[in-house]
Structures
1.
Amino acid sequence: MDWKSLQDLLSGVNKYSTAFGRIWLSVVFVFRVMVFVVAAERVWSDDQGHFDCNTLQPGCTNVCYDYFFPISHVRLWALQLIFITCPSFMVVLHVAYREERERKYRAKYGETARLYDNTGQKHGGLWWTYLLSLFIKTAVEVAFLYLLHLIYDSFRLPRRVRCDIKPCPNEVDCFISRPTEKTVFTYFMVGASVLCVILNLCEIFYLIAIRVVNLKQRGSVHTLPKKIPA
């Protein structure tokens, strides 16, 4: 997959993000995408080829590998990275929709007419779109963390697993290649995912807090007593 193209697309989101959003994007590409592309894919490249079972029964090794590794870690992480970055495009598309409305409005009423003060400013519908994208990203992160733990029953990879699935003649021992290195990468990717969840939650609370403060300020302005002329 061309991760560089994805980075170029998401870089445009930075213009509309808060400080937490910019940190989130940096964490995703520095600590997740780069580690995934440079190291993790290579660590798991020989996964099935070096999954050895102490039996010569044809098909036993393949069946046991499929049972213990129904989906590869790297493919699961690739799906996770795609799904967590897609909600950000909701914001870009909403801004593009605003810009198109602004263009049509100026074409109709003149170049000096303005429908929006700033098409990228987070107010009105764009604020809700941005907030919804954060909730979706957080939900996807948590769902994939739960799925990873559910599939493998732990974030730690064992050195040996025991398998008695047919066509294995009896219970056989199967050995995973480089389990310690894979465990280190798994914990690193899980830690980066948890950090992204924390950043998303911080940004959600920040946006809501700013919105509440602005609403209170507007309310106080409207309730100011009018001066009675002497």
2.
Amino acid sequence: MTRFALTVVRHGETRLNKEKILQGQGIDEPLSETGFKQAAAAGIFLNNVKFTHVFSSDLMRTKQTVRGILEKSKFCKDMTVKYDSRLRERKYGVAEGWPLSELRAMAKAAGQECPVFTPPGGETLDQVKMRGKDFFEFLCQLILKEAGQNEQFSQEAPSDCLESSLAEIFPLGKNCASKFNSDSGAPGLVASVLVVSHGAYMRSLLDYFLTDLKCSFPVTLSRSELTSVSPNTGMSVFIINFEKGEVKPTTQCVCVNLQGHLTGVTKTH
């Protein structure tokens, strides 16, 4: 069995988030003052986590957020961030720069609900989901390849430190191996991946995990929590398991849109 952790974080607030203006891909707005504070708070919360890989959307708000997170890290401050356009926000076409209320009105006029409505020039939800699937499959192949290479050159078992650093702040519970759950029989994590992306994109990625990968979610989560947009710097954590010979992984969700680190930070979302 090969296991790795995936931590997905939404970018910090921008001025347009606060004003409920659609940004998509075409409006490359920087973080607001509050957004920088949120990124710093996320970094402080994650400062003991040992990440092995860091990926981010290549838009400004995510670049500034991942920088703010890594600046607070004890172990990952100098890590190279891989910027990937597959992690960009959903493209809203002609509606980018519009108030969200106008998109809702356009959707209503077309007889559709807002999330499933696609404005001219925009991406459909399926197209966004396929971008998420493409990135996730790339990530899995990368981790499996590296794990195979490490196994070839080293007889050591995966270290427990990746898992223990996550277990300090996230409710891993039965998903956690080693000393935190000695009955699991699961090996330690071979990698711990940080991804910084966007609200609508993360919702589509969650949908892919839920419907395509049959991801198991904590029973305490309601359907509305699974389909809601993450708050700025909200965090979702997953444990990905590859059994030997299996093509598709089993995925277990630890938490969705966690935002406890924002206590005391001005929230205007």
3.
Amino acid sequence: MAMEDPDKKTEVVLLACGSFNPITNMHLRLFELAKDYFHETGKYKVIKGIISPVGDAYKKKGLISANHRVTMAKLATKNSDWVEVDDWESSQSEWLETLKVLRYHHQKLLSPDPANSLQNAIPLTKPGRKRKQEPNRHDPVKKKNRCPDIKSVPQVKLLCGSDMLESFGIPNLWKLEDIAEIVKNHGLVCISRAGNNVQKFIYESDILWRHKNNIHLVEEWITNDISSTKIRRALRRGQSIRYLVPDVVQAYIEKNNLYSPESEERNAGVVLAPLQKHASDSKN
């Protein structure tokens, strides 16, 4: 009977990072699938979903301005009572590793202080470091006295599709220590199509295998092949995208004439920020 009590469940916040160029119905479905999965285990309660569009400094080909991408994501989620858009990552002048965004949102849950900044996005593995925020880090633990079965601070888990998980294998795209900290301290929720090779990918990675209990694989039985790339292609060709993106997003794209052959050439020939950064790090 204990599992019936919602107060005894581990609270989870789902964080999705990415370009959202533009946001599609598929992105929104990821949240619904993950929420259903966690609630069906009986052990978790999803309290919030966060969409965090990447900043312009990511330099991905065809990436339109963060201002438009954030606005579209906000329009797409305005009727949701649990998924929201956060523009902290997209408003940074430099590209940020996904791990830093996870740390930031974890820290924000510990001390919901507007003065929160990147400096406070410290690793969970090093609680001994003396920082200004340190006293706040331990305050929520007091709640445990009242209710010993609940974990007082919600877990922030990275929500992704199988393509993001498999991108861990691309040289210089991710730092190995970042992957390790993401799966060890936060956890992954990966939505994958039935029959996808994600399990094989985890088996072939020592880091992922070591923390496989913190990787939640959610099978998507009602398959959905919508992608932002295909949406942009349809728009360039003057084809309809109705029912593939929320109506308000379609209206915004049309009103602002957002995707064109010219916009698709933005950042063409520019090296992606993480590849540039990690390649130069390895030389130093």
4.
Amino acid sequence: MMNSIKILSAVGIVTISCVTCLVVAGPAPVTPHQTGDRQQGGAVMFFAAHQGSLRDIEFNPIIFNQVLVNQGSAYSNDTGIFTAPVAGIYQFVYGAQLCRGEHNNMWDIMVKGSRRLSCHGQVSTGGTSVNTCYLMQELKKGDLVWVRQRVGGCAWASSSSTTITFSGVMLAREGVSALGEKYGSGSSCPLPVQGHRGAFKSSAPGQTAALSSIGITILLRVIFLE
């Protein structure tokens, strides 16, 4: 009889604990930034090309005057400069088909007037190749980014080709990635957050489940050891 009572008590405890876990955890929270950005079309990306070759002289900045994509309107084809509309992490790509012959092909991706990345490409006489440079950079709102060609560089393009290009995309806004997850907090552990009525609740449903499991284990040991 005593064993039956213990078993029924254990089943009851497990059931109540599981229901409590589901109620406390509740639905997964929706990140306000992510929802708002998608509703307002908050993506930032651009892709632009330079029409005609860039031969031997300095271009600072290179003005990519053929704009193919400019979502967020952050790139200016008047100045050749990208202006970060919001703080976040961005990736930029510069690509150029190299001219034939001996040239000092050097390009820089500039951020706020300082060189952040330099890339060099060289081909033998009579040959050609495409040189591609990548930069991932955390920017503040209003930071300027552009591409500079150094003296002696040579990139080839016709008036209609897209063989000299500059592109960029925002990967994450400050504090929120493109998937809605927080970054840059300095901690990978979920912390309790305060609800609108002052009550603290777990910032992750997994914490509630873990605490419930510990409580179940302790109560079951007490019951069956009596």
